[in-house]
Amino acid sequence: MKNITAVKATLLFTLIAIMAVGCKRKDPDASREAPEINVAEVTTDSIVLHNDYPGYLEAHTKAEVVGEVSGRLLTQNFTSGSYVTKGQVLFTIESTTYSDAVREAEASLASAASQRDYYSSQSTAMQKAYEKEAVSKMELLQSQSSLRQAEASIASASAQLENARTKLSKCTVRAPISGYITLNEVSVGNYINGEGNPQVLATIYDNTLFDAVFSIEDDQYPKLLGADKGEGSVLYSNMPLKFQTSLPHSYTADLYYVAPSVNSSTGSLQLVGKVNNIDNELKDGMYVTISLPYGTNPRAMVVKDAALSTDQLGKYLYVVNDSNKVVYTPVTVGPLYHDSLRVIEKGLKPGQKYVTEALLTVRNGMTVKPILKK
Questions:
Q1: Which residues pair with 199 in a beta bridge?
Q2: SS3 of 44, please?
Q3: 96: closest CA among 77, 69, 78, 75?
Q4: Of 329, 326, 331, nearest to 361 (Cα)?
Q5: Which of 372, 374, 362, 370 is closest to 328 using CA atoms?
Q6: Residues ≥6 apart with Cβ < 8 Å to 356
């Protein structure tokens, strides 16, 4: 019995010793120092509020290349889609008929000139004879009338010759403007009847300047007029444009036209903005969304756009609370501001701190040592 009691006592002592040692061990997480994490404060700023409106781009200058004479199309002197310059020869049309008309008009003019010279000499001779009473007054007047008719014939022949030469010149079709040319609508070898009704052969688009055409609701127009709250700012200039597919460069429009009346069937008002195609990326007919100012928010909350993350629920930030704990915080976002900031419409308060870097290493509930960065 004594041996059994001694064994029990030894086991109990050993168990107590083990528990004592275990209690002295430190929790690894407790001994780990909170990591330093860069944070920033939610700030406020006065920003211009915008609404987005769909629209499309239209070349500010474009011109149809037309055939204005009749004949077979002989040549095409350009590559479709290429850049052509004003005055460049684009097409040639069969000119035999018009060359013949020019020669006939030249002959008619020469004949009229010969008659004019004859009647001019006759009129001079009649005037001298009349002064010597060798001819009658009637004969003098008749010779003068014949001279006037000959001069009128010259004027008519000259007009016919000019018209014939104009038509002949139109057998060589030149570019009316500089720009990019479309596919030809009539193939070489086909007959065109352009004299009766000018026939479109191609279209040239000057892509240096575009019009952004869009419409706004009629009740938005008063807001547009009252949106300018800045000191001398021009809200109708540099309106941001967005495209269905992001382009390498950003573009803006300067409003220059507001329709004088509201479309009664749609209740909308058409506006047009000028867009410079500096990098030659824009094309006629492209769809575009225009951000149009309608007011200001004097205390809009803004955060660094790069600090935002996205999950299945939408956008969120990691906010650091007063206990230096990371808190997963869903937010409702607004437009981009000054290229790198994002407006927050809901979910935050001014002055709150949020994580700006190492977003993949922090987690909800984690204790951190926040380092405030401007």
A1: 67
A2: strand
A3: 69
A4: 326
A5: 362
A6: 38, 39, 40, 304, 306, 307, 373
Average pLDDT for the chain: 86
Question: Starting from the edge strand earliest in sequence, which strands make up the sheet with 89-93, in order?
Answer: 172-174, 89-93, 70-76, 191-193
Rounded Cα gap, residues 159 and 149, in angstroms: 15
Name the nearest CA neighbour of 326 among 289, 296, 353, 297: 353
Render pLDDT for 22-33 as a digit per residue (tens, 0 to 9): 544 444 444 468
pLDDT digit string, tens, across residues 22-72: 544 444 444 468 899 999 999 999 887 778 899 999 999 999 999 999 999
| Amino acid occupying residue 313 | L
Residue 216 Ramachandran class (φ > 0 left, ψ -120 to 50 alpha, else beta)? beta
Q: Which residues contact 214 (CB under 8 A, 6 or more apart)?
A: 53, 54, 55, 56, 270, 271, 272, 273, 288, 290
Phi, psi of 204, deg, nearest 5: -110, 130
Q: Is the pTM of this model over 0.90?
A: no
From CA 111, how far away is CA 134, in angstroms rounded?
A: 30
How many whole angstroms separate alpha carbon 334 and alpha carbon 354?
Answer: 17
Name the amino acid, one letter, at 212.
A
Could you report the per-residue pLDDT of 329-344, keeping only the tens digit for each? 999 998 888 878 999 9
How far apart CA 66 and CA 79 sit, in angstroms, is: 17
pLDDT in tens, 303-328: 999 999 999 989 999 999 999 999 99
Alpha carbon distance 181, 82 (integer Å)? 6
* C-beta of residue 306 within 8 angstroms of C-beta of residue 264: no
Q: Quote the pLDDT of residue 201.
A: 97
Q: Is 339 exposed, middle or buried (0-12, 13-18, 19+ CB in 10 A)?
A: exposed
Give the DSSP H/E element, type plus range, for residue 89.
strand 89-93
